Amino acid sequence: MPGYIVRVRLEDFFILVFALIYLGLWILGKVKPLKNPLFWIVVGYLAVGAVSGLVAIFIIKTIPMESVHILKWALHWARRVEYFFPLFLFYDGFKNRDYFKNLILVLTLVVLATAVYGFGQKYAQWPVYSTMNREFAKGWRLVLTEHARVPSTFAGHYDLAAFLVLVLPLTMGAVFYSRSLSGKILGWSAFISGYTLLILTASRTSFLALAGSIILLFGFYIHALGWKKTLVQMLIITVFGATTFLAFGDLSGRFSQIINLSKANGYIANNIFHLDQKTPQHYVNISDQLALVADKTDIPPVPVKSRGSGSQGATGEESPEFLSPPDVYGDIPDLFSSVDSNGVVTIISKPRQYSVAAFTYGLSSAIRFDALWPRAIAGFKKNPLLGSGYSTLVKVQVTDFTEAESTDNDYLRALGETGLLGFFLFYGAIVYAAYLIWKSLKTREFYEGKAVLAAVLVGILGLLINATYIDVFEASKVALAFWGLIGASIAYGKTH
User: Fold this and answer.
1) Pick from 26, 116, 162, 252: most CB atoms within 10 A?
2) What digits encode the pLDDT tens for the residues 9-35?
3) 158, 272, 336, 496 from 447: Cα distances, Å
4) What are the boundaries of each domain within the chain?
């Protein structure tokens, strides 16, 4: 669609091919998706999403009766169908014990490969391909600046962090799952490298979600296996986790408003590990814009006075200082175009205006408090039962065509787009899936696969925590992996 940032990717065609094969097998009676315990909940959610869109178009008019707006809504509905498909594919395909074991092996190797590429981006200027805006999404080859956060092979650092919240407990589960030394070494390698990569994303919410997940996971292992078989692993993770948190990346700096960690962080990173990263001079120009996602742009908040972009005014005197939020480092004006009666276009610049929330919390949080969350609530109020429809929450005016959608809170997004019905069906599917996995853990003796099923369960809880600040279930690589893993785990839990 003209002007839209979301693009079709190669993975979409792979999924389409498998969906057609699966449909053929369904017709032949080889697979039976109706036996999936989540089938009717998912179908109900998709039906609510469709009805919500029809109501938005024909009754409450939150989606204009124009092809481009209707097509965008249909795209978002179809994306939900795509995201749910692995739930059924994996449910029918991973009932065999060896298949499930291979799935965990593949995910462990994916974590290792993702970490290697992420470290290359951070410390060796390996290329970054970002979809943060439409221009970058065309395929610009970029590199990270000193404080930019690592996306590895993902669309952004938040997507990567959310994926790691889901799969890192699995790598620890593989340590307990595997009976061989090589399997345990592989699990430890993946966890250590993946955890370090999470630190380099500087995502506070994801870090807290993972920390909570690992604590719960070890609580289960202590209950099932006893202290003696888990104490060594707990000590390793505690010491390594604390050291890496202080030594690598900027995450500890983002927590510094709560606990002053700057001195310890600086000493360990620079004096012990010598990790003062340098960006080669010839890369600076091409990567300047990636500094927009740097850690320092999120650190709250003491308002500071900054100089204007020009050092002198028309009279030759220095331009006055302006009061700005702590994460604004230059007086970059807003630009507007004006067309006179002769068709001559004039560019007009005006000083930027900042909200009280921006001065108090920084721009990262302020955009949620001032715009994204209130608009989601407004969408919910327009139709509390069905919401205002997919892709309607970012717009200021109904007729606006936005280039991307984000609420940065998946719960508010679900309420705003699909109302109470959609919210309870979507999260009902997740809660019911967690219950089924918990049920298989609760009613069986401990066995190797049970260690991984417990890791899947805490991964679900971790993503639910993450969803308070990020749209994790709309991020394609997270959503596809999540629902596929859910399907495989439910099937495996029922047969073992």
Assistant:
1) 162
2) 889 999 999 999 999 999 999 999 999
3) 34, 42, 65, 9
4) 10-276+402-495, 304-356
